[in-house]
Amino acid sequence: MLTCSIDPVAFSIGSLSVRWYGLMYVIGFLLGWYLGRRRAARFGWKARDVDDLVTISMLGCVLGGRIGYILFYSLPMYMENPMEIFRFWNGGMSFHGAAIGLALAFLYFAHTRKQSFVDIADFITPLIPQGLFFGRIGNFINGELWGKVTDVPWGVVFPYAGPYPRHPSQLYEACLEGLLLWAVLFWFSSKPRKKGQIAGVFAMGYAISRFLVEFVRVPDEQLGYLAFNWLTMGQILSLPLFAFGLWLFFGSHGSKAQ
After folding, report:
1. Which of 54, 2, 60 is nearest to 28 (CA)?
2. Among 68, 77, 109, 207, which residue's Cβ finds the most Cβ atoms within 10 Å?
3. How far is the C-alpha of 55 from the C-alpha of 21, rounded, in Å?
4. pLDDT tens digits, the chain, 258 residues: what are they?
């Protein structure tokens, strides 16, 4: 049995405290930017295009993730405490909200570069799992989004969740949404594919991973189970994402292979 007792503050500079949660997002974006630059030549992109796309994607991800969490998970609390909206270090990001923010960023970038949304999505989705991996590690260090009580040998005691060991669901998601999905996309995108298929694999892969982990993750206290006494908000939001992935993978988006 392990105990999650990591100090959420990575280091301090005077009165400024740098938290692991925010640092994980910075590492994820920097790694995505680096890999995007290495990937640019294959797509006929310039390094400047990658810089612009990563910047607008980062903005879409952060704003979409925060707004999505507020709307999907905790609107009454934020209405009562509006200043909490700006306290990112306390956690509170929604992947599904971030996905919507990313989609809007892709649409904007595609419009300004006169490219298709699907081309943009195929380019950048293989760069996302690395960020998801570090984001989930940040959740683990924060001691949030823990799993249900368990007797498995790798159960973890989270200080804010009581004295009993729980599934480290954050690490499950880091492995599935991060490492495994990255490996699948790395392999799948190593050969030319029809438009939309790379992005489709990402959307379906994330939706399946999230849907499965939700079975051992404690639902958000303010929401609980929403249907059939087992379906969570995360699972409900994963269903349209999976359907979107199917459309990307099997739809007709042009014959050009990537």
Report:
1. 54
2. 207
3. 19
4. 688 888 888 888 888 888 888 899 889 889 989 998 988 888 888 888 899 988 898 888 888 888 888 888 777 777 777 776 666 656 667 888 888 898 899 899 988 888 899 999 999 899 999 999 998 999 999 888 899 999 999 999 998 888 999 999 999 999 999 999 999 999 999 888 999 999 999 999 999 999 999 999 998 777 788 877 789 988 998 999 999 999 999 988 765 555
Q: How many CA atoms lie within 13 A of 4 on its CB side?
A: 29
Helix or strand holding residue 133 (H, E): helix 128-142
CB atoms inside a 10 Å sphere around CB 56: 17
Q: Give the Cα separation of 11 and 25 in Å (integer).
A: 16
Return the ∠ at Cα 56 (arms to 52 and 60), rounded to 5°. Answer: 165
Q: Is 157 exposed, middle or buried (0-12, 13-18, 19+ CB in 10 A)?
A: middle
Position 79, amino acid: M
Q: What angle do CA 47, 59, 143 make, to 5 degrees?
A: 115
Angle at 48 between CA 42 and CA 49, to 5 degrees: 60
